[in-house]
Specification:
mainly beta
């Protein structure tokens, strides 16, 4: 499950649009519902 993130452009909470699990973490595509900004980041699994 993605950690969550705020939009860097309008400061609105973003939602995880897509998650792709990998051996050491996951690629998460976050999308802002307000300004439609998208960002793909890699999140490590929690220890």
């Amino acid at each position: 499950m993605a950690r969550g993130k705020k939009c860097p452009e309008c400061n609105t909470p973003m939602f995880a649009e897509k998650e792709d699990d990998q051996p050491k973490g996951r690629w998460v595509t976050y999308a802002c519902p307000r300004c439609k900004f998208k960002e793909r980041i890699f999140e490590n699994y929690a220890c």
